[in-house]
Amino acid sequence: LCCCEYVDRRGERNHLAACCCDCEDLDEGCERWLTCKSLPPGALERITATVADRLRVPWFSGAVKVNVSLVPPLVLLPVFLHVAALHFLLGLVILTSLPVLVLWYYYLTHRRKERTLFFLSLGLFSLGYMYYLFLQEVVPRGHVGYTQVVAVTCGLILMLVALSRAKKDPGYLPISASNEKSSHQGLPNKSVKESSNGLHSITMLGAASSRAVNGEAKGNAMMSAKEPGGVKKDWCTKCQLVRPARAGHCRLCGRCVRRLDHHCVWINNCVGEQNHQAFILTLCCFMLTAVYGIILTLHTICREQTPFVALFYCPGAYSDYSSALLFTCVWYSAIVTAGMGYVLIIQLLNISYNVTEREARLALRDNAGRRLLGGLVIDTGQYNRGFLCNWSHFWSLGSSPPQRSAEDIV
């Protein structure tokens, strides 16, 4: 392949020069739009799939596909912020609508069970763009010292390092070769009835295991035995394996994760046993760096006000376009920081009570937990051993590789 060629989703060789040609669905859609006719079922999905497949950039070994979800933050965020800096009312409307649009897109992808790089792209580009404006607009005014710039830079680097660790394996449970082979063959599994939470009853475990291993239902029925701590294991119908206590299946990743907390769209990865500490460290570094950067920027554009007062009342903020842009970015950063701060508080409270986000949701659904601190935390009471013991347990997560049980070895 040359730098402008690629193999499309149909397995055919194609060229970037022909990216606007040979699209029957698009031609039919335009014709129906001109004649005021409705599109046939599935036409819009086929057009979107074709456009996404042809959105590529030239590369040495062939044109590389660009993820469509990466594009909107890179284009729309600078445009929205610069438009919001033109007038106070424009800033109020845009800064109010941005969180609504992000939440709408989150619920849209969450309902469709889709993985997207939109939120990760939005977060990383927001950090980079805010840091660029900090160096380009705030530092040249002479009110920020060299050590303060170094502090912001080090905080940003530490956050990115922690983020790279949080993006790694959260503790996926290994899938046996027989299960992988059966999943690739697409064999249906209809002999076991699925419950509301995606788990089969323990009494039907032998029937599902017999087909996956060697047909001995009685021997595999013993896989529902309790762990040494007295906690029952679960059978995952999707991964076809017995998972240990506190493990859960992520419907977005399609894998079971040890001590699954939740799937975080901002890092496009699950938060589990192996990366929960790095996730908390990422949030802490982000909060400290963002708050410090906001304070330095407010001190620069509103020197006569304290940072908290300047956030709501800064008379000279719209005296020039540069100050208006900085003030708009401060409010944008404050909104994002407030949202991440709420997530961090919930995480710290959950750790203090040794409960995961997944366990809290299940407890709410089954009315099996106590609401504490105004409903901010749900104490299931199952793993709570006290504040110090809970935090000691959290810092020991992932310190030693999990031991494989006899059932996993078999």
Automatic annotation (TrEMBL):
EC number assigned by the record: 2.3.1.225
One Pfam match: DHHC
GO terms, biological process: protein targeting to membrane
GO cellular component assignments: endoplasmic reticulum; Golgi apparatus
Residue ranges of the TM segments: 79-105, 117-134, 146-163, 278-301, 321-345
Membrane topology note: Multi-pass membrane protein
Keywords: Acyltransferase, Golgi apparatus, Lipoprotein, Membrane, Palmitate, Transferase, Transmembrane, Transmembrane helix
Catalytic activity: L-cysteinyl-[protein] + hexadecanoyl-CoA = S-hexadecanoyl-L-cysteinyl-[protein] + CoA
Example GO molecular function: protein-cysteine S-palmitoyltransferase activity
Subcellular location: Golgi apparatus, trans-Golgi network membrane
Palmitoyltransferase DHHC domain span: 232-360
Comment on protein domains: The DHHC domain is required for palmitoyltransferase activity.
Family: Belongs to the DHHC palmitoyltransferase family.
UniProt name for this protein: Palmitoyltransferase
